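User: what does the whole thing look like in 3D?
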Amino acid sequence: AQRVTQPEKLLSVFKGAPVELKCNYSYSGSPELFWYVQYSRQRLQLLLRHISRESIKGFTADLNKGETSFHLKKPFAQEEDSAMYYCALNSGGYQKVTFGTGTKLQVIP
Amino acid sequence: KAGVTQTPRYLIKTRGQQVTLSCSPISGHRSVSWYQQTPGQGLQFLFEYFSETQRNKGNFPGRFSGRQFSNSRSEMNVSTLELGDSALYLCASSLGGELITDTQYFGPGTRLTVL
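Assistant: Here's the predicted 3D structure for the full assembly of 224 residues, as structure tokens:
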């Protein structure tokens, strides 16, 4: 069975400091991985997906199959990055998504 | 484009009752997925519908069911409510084609409280 682990419930960083939100997964097949974000009083929304290999709002994430990780990184945190971040894995075809428990990122001014 | 809408936004029920939640996807989207979100378990996949057919199902008891109509609107039903069913129920819509990386767009959720 697939599983997504986000070991940190809360991550506090100072503005301008680097950010790394950890995500590890277990899945026997070829995973499709995503990061979703939920800002205060807003809906859950897609931040980025590994297959696109894109940078969104300065965030990047690299799939490391050897370490089964998909950590989210940003070199310089901004206050507006404060939000709840969820790592997710799409398996079993179509939309069968397993979410991690989420990490709350708090950027201290 | 209007976003995903869910009704009602809040519900209070008592144990043993049943409840129906509704989700209207973004126009043109044919896939609707449902999730249960709780503080303890996080977001858990319930099921996904595409063209009125259930394509995927999570690990929830049979008390949780759903359906999708020809206009892609979806409903989920929970029968014989238990206290543990108190949660935020989210639905998400997507185009639903063959691409498994299809972007999901989430609704605001329905907050269900079971007393």
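In plain terms: The interface with chain B takes residues 32, 43-46, 49, 51-52, 86, 90, 92-102 of chain A (CB under 8 Å). Chain A has a mean pLDDT of 91.
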